């Protein structure tokens, strides 16, 4: 039985979630996600259930260790967790979602004590090899609140039975266990090579709820790397001993201003 926690999501593009805890209630979080906490909160880091659970979590892109925050004081306690990059925090009430939900790896942020983070494998080899998420997904399992993070704007859709949507593979954030996940080749030779969307698209078929993200971290990283390469040769300032602050990655993102 997961702890019943209250929460408040703060911010717009760089969100954080503040969790309110009663005495002896706890929340578990990805290592390094904590922003601040009130008095009476005890922090304890462990594998979250043994070596095997730690290894499974590491395979899904999370850290080997997980940190529990327990309120041991009187009255109300609080602890807050920050998003790792621009985007939105999605609260998932697993009680209302059938007790489990599938998410992209690296998406877990925090959850009520009693929620398990498990390894889930895609059922088809094609989806595993070409589906963007690979063979590995996260399964959040329990009967309480869990929070995941995704990039950009979040789109929530409820697919009817048999309803299908085709999605860029990186834009999938989370979906119900009842949703069928597969991939299909992008139509046409020119579309596949020059369309910029890759060789395959993911297909999600209902029934069930899905969450999509407009800015996958991989897409953001690709743009930063591309900007770095574009400015790379002339972006090194030997006098300051830094690479490309004026003309490299940050220079490209900030318009190439060399005045600072």
Keywords:
260 residues, alpha+beta, Double-stranded beta-helix, 6-stranded antiparallel sheet, 16% helix, globular, disordered C terminus
Q: In summary, what is this structure?
A:
The chain is of the alpha+beta class and 260 residues long. Helix content is 16%, strand content 42%.
Overview of the structural elements:
- It is a single chain.
- With 260 residues, this protein is an alpha+beta fold.
- The protein folds into 2 domains: 210 residues, Double-stranded beta-helix (4-Layer Sandwich); 36 residues, no CATH class.
- 16% of the residues lie in helices and 42% in strands.
- It is built from 5 helices and 21 strands.
- The strands form 5 sheets. It has a 6-stranded antiparallel beta sheet with strand order 5-6-3-10-13-8, with no helix packed on it. It has a 6-stranded antiparallel beta sheet with strand order 11-12-9-16-19-14, covered by helices on one side.
- β20 and β21 form a beta hairpin.
Can you lay out the helices and strands and say which pair or pack?
Blueprint: E1 6-10, E2 16-21, E3 26-30, E4 34-37, E5 41-46, H1 51-59, E6 66-71, E7 77-82, E8 87-93, E9 100-103, E10 108-112, E11 116-121, H2 125-130, E12 136-141, E13 145-151, E14 154-159, E15 164-167, E16 172-175, E17 180-185, H3 189-194, E18 200-205, E19 208-213, H4 217-231, E20 236-237, E21 242-243, H5 249-253
Antiparallel strand pairs: 1-2, 2-7, 3-6, 3-10, 4-7, 5-6, 8-13, 9-12, 9-16, 10-13, 11-12, 14-19, 15-18, 16-19, 17-18, 20-21
